[in-house]
Amino acid sequence: MSVVEQNPFNEHVGNGVTSVFGYTFQLLDADDLKVYLDGVLQPTSIYSVSGIGNQAGGDVTFTPGNIPASGVVVLLSREIQLARDTDYQYAGELREATLDEDFNRLWQALQGQRAILNGAVRAPYPETMTPLPAQAARANQFLVFDASGNLQVSAGTGADAGLRADLADTTNPANGAALVGFNPTLNYVAATLGARNAEIVSPKDHPWLAKGDNSTIDRAAIEACFTYAASTGKKVFVPPGVYLLDNTVAWPIASGFEVECAPGAIFKATAAVPVDAKLFFPTATSGSQRFKWVGGFVDGRLLPPRNVGAPDLLYINSPNIKFVHIEASAWVVNNDRSGNAGDSCLFLAEGEDYYVHRNYFQGAVDAGIYLSGDSTETLGRRAIIGNNIFIECGQVGVISKRQFQEHVIDGNIVDRCGVGIVMGGEADATRLPGKRGAITGNRIRRVTRGIEIKVSDGAVVTGNSIEDWGINAAGTSVNDVAISVRGSKACVVVGNSIRIDPSITPASGATAIRCNRFTWGGADYDSTANLIGMNNIVRTGVAFAEDANSNNNKWLDNNATDYLTLATLNSNTLSRFVGWEGTRQINYFGDSGAGPVSTADAFWEKNGELIFQYCVPNTNTIQWLVGDQNNNAVGRFGYSNAADRWFWRANGSPSSAMEMNEYGPIIRSFTVANLPTTGVAAGLLAYASNGRKAGEGAGAGTGVLVFRDGANWIAVDTGAPVTA
Predict the structure, then answer these.
(1) Where are the domains of the chain?
(2) pTM above 0.85, yes or no
(3) Contact in structure between 332 and 365 (CB atoms under 8 Å)
(4) Tens digits of residue pLDDT in 17-47
């Protein structure tokens, strides 16, 4: 019979129950059938074959106990040995059945070979390929195709390296991970490298492809990357490189934002940035969005000069951006404070919970950090500005301005700035002061003004070191202040060190600590109820000062050395401070000018072992004072060296009620017309310098001793009222 086209195998899957599996090809002999279970050839003893010779095939039946288990692949394959068993005899009988079967087996063997060939790697007809190398030459090698399309073997290290070798390559930057595509915007299967890597995105990732080559403008790529991260809550990592910016990088924040820059990551503004454009400008319209920036160098030195706007390097001005954390980064606007590019380094406004630490700020036209609230008491709360460096900022190193609460500026270094640190409230019609701020442990040097507290209640200024202040940008000494308390109440200025190097001559009006009024928008703010104590002043024009509008301030236990003027204080200020004039220690105390007719304060002097208490209208007077509960001097007993007499004065009068020298008491002298008539007790003695003695004519009196009888002044020699 003829041989029909057939596939010489069938596959089945066992279920643990079925024992009979069919085959659909012709078998001429049961030995031609091979049975495999999961690829393992089975012995003929565990099954029987039916349908031998049937062109449509037959069945294989497994014996009990050998039924294929569930899931086991059952392969029934016709495999004919390439051998001929029939031996044709010379001149023998040629039977048709024998010849037919012999030819059938030949064709069935060819069908089997074709099935095997179909699973082989083949070149298309009529192409030919070179043979493989010998076994030893191809051991532990990879099959690759050469430039002619022929098979070769390779260790995987050349330009023709196999994929597996290239993926494992750790030396060629074009191989290994470079051969694996990645797109962080895709939703990769969980727990894969794609899913893990997509948790952090980079502007250099697909699809943004920033270059960071100091040549390509990368603003659009960075903005798109930041926008994507801020909408998905993913962290941004910026690799090393110089990323050029030609305009504002603006992005909305909806799911928080965090960026970490590698060392060597530089954002560099170009001269193409529009005038007054801000460089980085995040926004948020809802929620309480977190913002974190770590590392990197933002270089704004090529920014154009500002016109009327505030072209800050980082501008955050939203009540919806809170929990702002900026750390370990550098922000440079100009090389020094004479530059005019840009404005502030950081502008942080209307949010709350700011934490800015371990950063570097240089060359701001306005402020290194400009921290602001608004005209309510709900925004601008809680800020810590600590351990930063501010260099060459034109107006101020750091300013905490407008309404705020709980701002702490601590441990910073401020060098060569207009003003070191400013802390102030809202200076407008609302008159809302700053509250509960603290400026502590900062080192400020080579500034025009050290620290300014302005319209602030309850601020604490302590432990700061202010050196070489009162110097403008040109290095000239000017009349300014080391610590200025302006229009503020209940502040504490304690334990600060204020000094000027001996190589610098301070201006005569340069004042170490001053309290005074602050006027803004037609409103006056006076400095009252402040405590200034235990500060150490070395070398200044004026050590301590306050204006006429400052009252009820306490100046206690301050120390000053090498000054032109020790203190110019208001009339109702309690003071106690130490001054040094050469080796002489002078300790001042009392109520400056309130009772005594003195231009200087009461003080005690210790010179060797001799101690005096006195008030000094001039250098020839020593006075002991008696004060009231309001610190007013109501009585003084003293000695005038110039007049060589002791005196007693009452009720703050500039004239002595009684004087005495070594010869006895000196009665107070009046003309007859000026003899006191009110508040004078009977029995008081006086001398009428033009009073008439007995026998002297009118207008010719030469003086007479008089006494008060309760109603009149009586001449002692006549017993009659005295006349001139």
Answers:
(1) 9-118, 607-666, 667-724
(2) no
(3) no
(4) 999 999 999 998 899 999 999 999 999 999 9
